[in-house]
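Section 5: illustrative case.
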């Protein structure tokens, strides 16, 4: 589903990514690990179209989308849950969910019941403003909003950051459920080592803007991986 090759990124005169290549397959969770500042979020911004790479190529389901805008990638099937959630605080939960309708056809603009099965708390809070939700509830809302767009590629940036353990466990269950559906590729950026290692099928470790280690999770030496990413 995703094949990115030799991606580089500059912010002004500073080079953030140095020839990063990653791939992700449908029905698998691909985890990108590394400490703060190694370029993980910058990579996801390229994959979501919110930043343009300086060089390299990006194929989505075999189609070159290197120069695509964020709205074009969303319509092509890229769902993005950014670090910090970025829900609309003054909109209700219902209205936040409905912002995902822009990627859907006229007959598809509704919230599937499966969303409420995955995140039951949202059904009880439809008329509450997003800004009044707890951090964990906002994270659930952000993931649900991305799922409404029916993504082929789901990008999750630090979904466990700053939320309580029971919500972390629930998000892990959602990731496992989505993988079992075999309908999308999931790319997970994560620093929480045990969560990442416990859910990933394939792991890329980054350091200083480069991929320094890559392997199927079943073949990884956990000690070596910890040393590689510094987490």
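Designed sequence:
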């Amino acid at each position: 589903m995703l094949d990115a090759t030799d991606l580089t990124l500059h912010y002004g005169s500073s080079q953030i990514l140095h020839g990063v290549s990653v791939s992700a397959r449908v029905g698998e969770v691909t985890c990108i690990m590394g400490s703060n500042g190694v370029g993980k979020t910058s990579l996801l911004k390229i994959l979501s179209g919110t930043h343009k790479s300086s060089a390299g190529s990006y194929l989505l389901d075999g189609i070159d989308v290197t120069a695509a805008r964020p709205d074009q990638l969303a319509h092509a099937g890229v769902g993005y849950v950014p670090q910090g959630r970025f829900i609309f605080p003054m909109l209700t939960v219902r209205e936040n969910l409905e912002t995902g309708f822009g990627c859907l056809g006229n007959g598809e603009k509704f919230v599937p019941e499966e969303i409420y099965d995955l995140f039951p708390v949202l059904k009880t809070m439809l008329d509450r403003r997003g800004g009044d939700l707890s951090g964990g509830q906002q994270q659930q809302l952000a993931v649900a909003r991305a799922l409404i767009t029916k993504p082929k590629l789901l990008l999750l940036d630090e979904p466990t950051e700053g939320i309580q353990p029971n919500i972390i466990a629930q998000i892990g269950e959602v990731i496992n459920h989505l993988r079992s559906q075999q309908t999308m590729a999931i790319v997970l950026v994560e620093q929480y080592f045990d969560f990442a290692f416990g859910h990933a099928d394939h792991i890329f470790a980054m350091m200083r803007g480069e991929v320094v280690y890559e392997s199927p999770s079943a073949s990884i030496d956990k000690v070596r991986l910890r040393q590689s990413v510094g987490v």
